[in-house]
Write a structure and sequence with these properties.
Length: about 280
């Protein structure tokens, strides 16, 4: 009460709260805060966090565990530890199904507590579009789906800002995988619902690349998958899959500026049903 009597408008208390928040943001390198003058200046990390709605607790985790070279298991482990998933707890009725799902994940689950392992498994299940029977796990997957892509995009932006090319490629692949619900190492035609699982698996096991499918005719494709019926359909989908010819020329302007001219020419057949109505 004596604070309220001395400062009826609570100006001092508000300043104290603002300074405490600024000190936390400065500690996590989201702003630069001068305690003497009170001046604040945002950083690139702070801009990324603000744009993608990333909490300062998650940025603190990034500063601690984000490194220049990260493996797939480390990337998924880092995402599963983010503060955005702190409310996802492990329930007793979920343990059995999570154990079964862990045996089928594409990337081994490494490190973390039980909650982080659950998030890691469900993130991979989301990308794989795995069938889940427990209602609470279905709800948690939908929750993860709302944030995982955004978190991965923030990791990509931060790695790009730090000039970590290897990490940029890895995080970008995971961004696309989470958006398209298809692993980056799967065959591209898996994204089309027109093909049965058996046919897609044959394409994957026989390592038939998209350029090769585009060069072969429908009969040759049918012989490769030992199913002549789906040869014409696979040929059609292969020609409709977005591909481009890229030509780049680089010209140095100064020691730190490089002019890049990029020529992009589409080499696929446009289909409104697949690609939308606007080109």
């Amino acid at each position: 009460w004596h604070e309220l009597a001395d400062d009826p408008l609570l100006g001092g208390k508000r300043e104290q709260l603002v300074r405490a928040a600024c000190e936390i943001l400065d500690k996590n390198m989201m702003i630069r805060f001068d305690e003497n003058t009170g001046l604040m200046q945002f950083t690139e990390t702070g801009r990324i966090a603000s744009h993608l709605y990333i909490t300062h607790e998650t940025i603190e985790l990034y500063n601690e565990k984000l490194h220049e070279t990260m493996e797939d298991s480390q990337i998924l482990g880092l995402i599963s530890e983010c503060h955005e998933f702190q409310n996802l707890n492990l329930r007793d009725d979920e343990v059995k199904e999570l154990e079964d799902m862990e045996n089928r994940v594409a990337i081994p689950v490494v490190g973390g507590d039980e909650r982080c392992k659950k998030i890691n498994i469900l993130t991979q299940a989301m990308i794989s579009q795995a069938k889940i029977s427990t209602f609470s796990l279905v709800s948690d997957v939908n929750y993860i789906n709302q944030s995982a892509g955004r978190l991965c995009r923030s990791l990509f932006e931060i790695s790009l800002q730090r000039n970590w090319a290897g990490n940029c490629l890895s995080f970008l692949k995971y961004c696309v995988s989470m958006e398209r619900k298809s692993w980056f190492f799967n065959h591209p035609l898996r994204q089309f619902n027109a093909l049965p699982e058996e046919i897609v698996r044959k394409l994957e096991t026989r390592l038939v690349s998209m350029p090769r499918l585009q060069d072969l005719d429908s009969m040759e494709i049918g012989k490769i998958i030992t199913n002549m019926r789906y040869g014409p359909l696979i040929k059609q989908l292969a020609m409709q899959f977005p591909t481009f010819n890229l030509e780049a020329s680089c010209q140095p302007i100064t020691r730190q500026i490089l002019r890049v001219k990029l020529s992009i020419e589409p080499t696929f057949e446009w289909a409104d049903g697949l690609h939308g109505g606007a080109q």
